[in-house]
Amino acid sequence: TEAILAPLLSGFTRARLFAEAGSVWNWLSTQSPPLIPRNVSWTALLQGYATSRSNSVGTVTSIEETWDQMLQAGILPDARAWATRVEGYFNAKEWKQAMILINQLSKKTSLVNLEGGVEYAPKMYAKIVVGLLKNGQGGSASEVLEGMERNGVQPTIELLNALLAHHAFGKSPDFPAIIS
């Protein structure tokens, strides 16, 4: 049921239709037995904030408030929740803070040790590289790509498409980089 409602939570939150998102959230507790929101629901809220087009201060504040509420509810963030949180910072043009979060995560545990981490690692790397590219940090993105290669993580199709788009349609197209 949560997986079915997650797109509604995310979509309403992204559209800043908080009353509607609240209605979906409250509906969970009215079921018999009550459905307790787990990572799927919390991550949907994070995703809504992370992909909204609001200002960076509001986005980051909303992400962090949701993150704190999730932890207070006893939910341990999984790999997807961490990646969504980081993505929100990148989208808010707060790339330095995004990298600080990634470093905090790596000091606590490896991404692959989180629930869903092994299969989610390529997507996390993709979010980091794309976030860095969107924030004009091509050198740092290259370092992350090299780390992926060293760790044996295969790039996702989304990452390859983002790299192609960056090199072909960026501010200064780099066609030799596409070939290499």
Q: What's the short story on this structure?
A:
This protein has 180 residues and is mainly α. It is built from ten helices and no strands.
Task: Lay out the secondary structure.
Elements: H1 2-14, H2 18-30, H3 39-50, H4 56-72, H5 79-91, H6 95-108, H7 117-134, H8 138-150, H9 157-169, H10 175-179
Helix pairs in contact: 1-2, 1-3, 3-4, 3-5, 4-5, 5-6, 5-7, 7-8, 7-9
Overview of this protein structure:
It contains ten helices and no strands. By secondary structure, it is mainly α. 36% of the residues are buried.
Major sheet summary line: none
- Report the average pLDDT across residues: 85
Rounded to the nearest angstrom, the radius of gyration is 17 Å
Shape assignment: globular
Order of helices and strands: HHHHHHHHHH
Q: Per DSSP, what share of the residues sits in E-state strands of 2 or more residues?
A: under 5%
Tell me how many strands there are.
Answer: 0
- Helix fraction, binned, reads over 70%
